[in-house]
Fold this protein.
Amino acid sequence: MSISSSRKRGSVDTTALAYLVVLAGIATALHIWKLPPALPALQAELGLTLVESGFLLSLVQMAGMTLGLVMGLFAEKIGLRRCLLLGLLVLSVASAAGAVFVDKTLLLVFRAVEGCGFLMVVMPGPALIRRLVAPGQLARLMGVWGTYIPIGAVLSLLGGSWLLSMLNWKVLWLLLSLATLLTALVAWRLLPRDPARLARAERSSALSIVRTTLASESNWLLALCFCVYAGQWIAVIGFLPTIYALAGISGPVAGVLTALVAGSNAAGCFAAGRLLHRGVSPRKLMTIGYATMIATTFIAFGIGAPVWVQFLMVLLFSTVGGLVPTTLFLLVIRLAPTPETTSTSIGWLQQVSAAGQFAGPPLVAWVATLAGGWQLTWVVTGLAGLLGIAMASRLGARMRAGVAAKG
């Protein structure tokens, strides 16, 4: 089935296929967020310290932190659809292996392998959606794509907490392996094949594509904006079950509260797509998102607020913060230096973002360990938010000057 023949059947078909790509992203997010509800059991069973738990939360980003650009080039060469399908298979196998071979070191290794699969799915996702939908639909569909992490988080946190109240964490790992495999089969059956590659003489060399990608200041600004957003978001949300446990809130209730907070991010992501479609400035959306994250974490952690105030502030932190990722997903497609560098630009965005997600949880855990509590968490998130505002301002200035598209 060719892409052109799929489009001839109408926009409903191609939009449905774009939602299938989002579903694949959600399947990967399930693996990212299966860990927080299982973390107390893993700490007890494997003797994990708080800092080791932070690295376990972030190790899934190791592949993205080191291989994002390379994976973008890989997808450009083998095709976006093939890359997505292979990533789903890697996730399925690694999750099943983690349930079978139970060991602290091996669990860390398999989380790193899951990170490879995660990257291979989410890196080609935006470019696949752009290929499937009309340009006028792109901003709204990017808003939908931006929800894959929060939706996956809700499903994992709620379903995982419920399942773990009755069964061992290994069952959760195996069920997610099966669900991911089924998603891969559906995507293999329905997604249109990658278009024929250009003749060798018409293609840029791999080195040329990488150079063009990394020479773009816009790519660096976008990637760093995502880095400071994602690092603080995953740290705050990932440790919420632990924070609630220290406050005496039971496991299922803590899971529900954390799921509500994570899921609220989808509302912000979706709203950003609508606002961008209506012409709201990307700089304005990012500034509002970062500023809200700064203010809410200060109130939640810096003034000794009661638990219900903490919950409301973190809920607002996640909801309004969702304006940031959708904006960045759309901009990285629009501002890629050339059509050939779209995949590598997205890969670089994911790579630098993964570095933030890798560093965020251990950094917050380290500060909490030094402080003897979570009261200085706002310092880490506040600095990250200020950096985000500064880079969004620089990016906005470049866009107004009309030079961003040239990199």
In short: The chain has one domain: 8-192+209-406. Confidence is low (pLDDT under 50) at residues 1-12, 403-407. Residues 63 and 308 are 37 Å apart (CA to CA).
